[in-house]
Amino acid sequence: MTGRAGPPARLTALALAGALGLAACGSIDPEAGPTATAGRSAAPPAVGPASDAARAALFDAFGEARLIVVESPTPYRPAEAAALAVAPRTVYQVTLPAEPSSAFVVVYELPSEAAAVAAAKEQHAYLVSGPGKVQAPLGTDHVLQQLGSTVLYYQWLPAAAVDPSTPRVAEALRRIGTNFEVRD
Fold this sequence. Notes:
Elements: H1 7-25, H2 49-64, E1 69-71, H3 82-85, E2 89-94, E3 104-109, H4 113-128, H5 130-133, E4 141-147, E5 150-156, H6 166-173, E6 178-179
Antiparallel strand pairs: 1-2, 2-3, 3-5, 4-5, 4-6
Helix pairs in contact: 2-6
C-alpha cells in the first residue's frame, strides 16, 4: 500500500476543508437580514412579560379586526437598525388566504421602555435614510409601534396587496401603543 488517497478520498477531504473554511468565516444564518454580519447569531426569542403583553395586544387587535394571527413557523427578518437587529424577537404571521407568505409582524423586546423608544426612533431614522429606503420597494407602508418595552414592526406594499384583508393588518397594528409614522 502506498499511503496515497484515491480520488474519492481526495474529494471528501476537499469538501471537508471547504466546509471548515466557511465555518471559520462566520455563521451562515438564513434568518439574517441586510444588517447581519458574519459571526453574529440570530437574536433570541422574546419571552419576557413585555413580550407577553405585546402578544396579548396583537391578538386582541387582530381579533377585533377579524384576522387570525399565529406565531410564525417561517423564519423572517426585515431590514433593521442596529438596536433591533440584536434584540430578542418573536415573529407572528397574520393569515391572509390570498397572500400566504406575507403579513409578518415582528415583536422586539428591549430592556426598558426608554430603550424601546430609542430603538423605535433608531428604526424610524434607518427606514427614512438612503440605506433603509432601498430595503423595500417604493410605496411600502412601514408600521412601527412602541408598546411598553417592546417595538412592533410590519411592512407591506399597498400597490401589490392581493388579499382584501391586507390593509386591515396595518390598521389593527396602528391601534397598539405609540406610532412612529414613517413617511418617504
